[in-house]
Design a protein that fits this description.
28% strand, 9 helices, 14 strands, D-Maltodextrin-Binding Protein, domain 2, 2 domains
Length: 278
């Protein structure tokens, strides 16, 4: 960790929406404890590198995050940029990494300040790291190839997939994997590194289904794998949060204030409209 200096936590009204990743740095910073306008009780936080907010992500979860042509993009990427801007920092993404390696990295410290990769807030994960306040709601879904021939209600589809001759792809370490293992104990559950690999396997017939976050597999079926469809929507009521080390509670507090300001000034609604439509 570099030598730390003080920086101001800029008020939300002074920030602009950051949509382009830039070279960045981090520092010991000050953020108001309650509101961006209240400077009476600053909250200090640290960052790995001076002037930077370093972000860890798998960058393979469109439209939340993706990595094409060496450029990160997506809802979560825009959100990270906006948070960094309002904290007076610049945002830098690490190279794409396996999803299930991010929380251990943040817990260990020293390489990234936050994990922002569509993390569902769970009690199990909260044992290892802190979450910010929720910024997006989500459910799970199951994608299949259109010619698979499984039709019916939720019970019918779950019973059909819960068989020894069914192979269900999941992204390792996700709530999709947890749901599949709990509800499809007879099926062969295959944890894989990326959404693209999972969807490719379903499209080619290697796997009969893929369980993951509904916004993501819906996007995949609509844009990239049009021979696939959503067979099942699972109302899990999940919420996404940003992952922060338990050793850096000031950063969690500062990001929570930014998230609240973004909700209040309409920026969050603009981002959701941009990436998810009406």
């Amino acid at each position: 960790m570099s030598n730390l200096t003080r920086r101001n936590f800029f008020a939300a009204s002074a920030a602009t929406l950051g949509l382009v990743l830039t070279a960045c740095g981090g520092s010991k910073s000050e953020a108001p404890a309650e509101t961006a306008a209240d400077a009476a009780a600053p909250v200090e936080f640290t960052t790995v590198q001076e002037g930077k907010l370093i972000v860890a992500s798998d960058l393979d979860f469109p439209p939340l995050d993706s990595f094409e042509g060496g450029v990160a993009s997506g809802f979560d990427v825009d959100l990270s940029n906006e948070i960094a801007s309002r904290l007076g920092l610049e945002c830098e993404y690490l190279p794409p990494m396996d999803f299930d390696s991010i929380i251990p990295m943040i817990k260990q410290g020293g390489k990234a300040d936050i994990g922002n990769s569509a993390f569902s807030i769970t009690e199990e994960r909260k044992q290892e790291i802190d979450f910010t306040d929720a910024y997006l709601d989500s459910n799970l879904g199951v994608a299949v190839k259109k010619d698979l021939g499984i039709v019916g209600g939720e019970d019918v589809i779950v019973n059909a997939l819960n068989a020894s001759d069914m192979t269900v792809a999941v992204q390792a370490g996700t709530t999709g994997e947890a749901w599949a293992r709990e509800n499809l104990p007879e099926a062969n559950i295959v944890p894989l590194a990326s959404v693209t690999v999972c969807m490719t396997g379903v499209s080619t017939g290697q796997y009969q289904a893929f369980c993951a976050d509904l916004p993501v597999i819906g996007h995949q079926c609509e844009v990239s794998f049009t021979d696939c469809e959503i067979a099942l929507e699972i109302p899990t009521g999940e919420q996404y949060g940003i992952v922060v080390s338990k050793d850096n509670p000031g950063l969690t507090a500062a990001i929570n204030q930014v998230l609240a300001d973004m909700e209040a000034d309409g920026t969050m609604a603009e981002l959701k409209s941009k990436w998810f439509g009406a």
